[in-house]
Amino acid sequence: xxxxxxxxxxxxxxxxxxxxxxxxxxxxxxxxxxxxxxxxxxxxxxxxxxxxxxxxxxxxxxxxxxxxxxxxxxxxxxxxxxxxxxxxxxxxxxxxxxxxxxxxxxxxxxxxxxxxxxxxxxxxxxxxxxxxxxxxxxxxxxxxxxxxxxxxxxxxxxxxxxxxxxxxxxxxxxxxxxxxxxxxxxxxxxxxxxxxxxxxxxxxxxxxxxxxxxxxxxxxxxxxxxxxxxxxxxxxxxxxxxxxxxxxxxxxxxxxxxxxxxxxxxxxxxxxxxxxxxxxxxxxxxxxxxxxxxxxxxxxxxxxxxxxxxxxxxxxxxxxxxxxxxxxxxxxxxxxxxxxxxxxxxxxxxxxx
Length: 353
What we know:
Elements: H1 2-13, E1 21-26, H2 34-39, E2 48-54, H3 59-72, E3 79-85, H4 95-105, E4 119-124, H5 131-140, E5 146-148, H6 160-169, E6 175-179, H7 185-191, E7 201-206, H8 218-227, E8 232-237, H9 246-249, E9 256-265, H10 268-278, E10 284-289, H11 293-305, E11 311-317, H12 320-329, E12 335-339, E13 350-351
Helix pairs in contact: 3-4, 4-5, 5-6, 6-7, 10-11, 11-12
């Protein structure tokens, strides 16, 4: 109804205490989606937008997502998250979504594009992001404060030189999500410049290609931590990264807040390493490993040392003593996945009220 549409428009246009956001799920498969037509006049008023594309194999869903994106970026959009759910079609490379995103964010006199964008999250797209796209995104959105392109695909095409360019184009960036292979000394040197704003968060995804690059040494992390004392790092070490490279990535001076070790192999030694290096900062740990009495002992030591832990998720069977150790030793713990016997997949976590 026209009066309802006018009411929604007024709500979307209010910027005081009202949060302007919209979650849109593109899954209908209809080329003329009536809901899209209904909200088309309101989308330029949205400030925070999350688009999820279901069934990538249906071109109509991808087309609907791009239509939403074009309409939303005709206004001063502030935050954008693009993700996909369901299976990925064979040989699908995401060129249409990449080109559509690039076109939507390209500024012109009649189109705002990415000029106001401060947060861009592409972690949920299942295809390899091109280096040229990342460069274009930075050029079109110089006010970016958060850029997350660590989408855990098989290959990373974003080289360190592109990251250096992004940092130069976006001086306000304080949150970065990257593949570990996108880091280098030149990237660190750019982050250490005195005129840069404080770096608050860094998410790094480490996979098999990380073994081909020199790791950041402990002194480099110490320098970053000194220059950016509020920095918190999240690390994901994938099962494709050889175990003998774990210690080179897990340097003691990393200000590690969140850690995922996804191996399904023995992680006793690595758990002891985490206890020794990160007891003062670690808040979340996720382990995909194998059960053993030695692991139980390592987990109890972890619980006793890491009092700041808020989440523990261990995807193997542990003893009752381990659960008790985390409950007693971690007063901030609010949820955990610790099982004393195998359960049907997926395991549900326990929330402490």
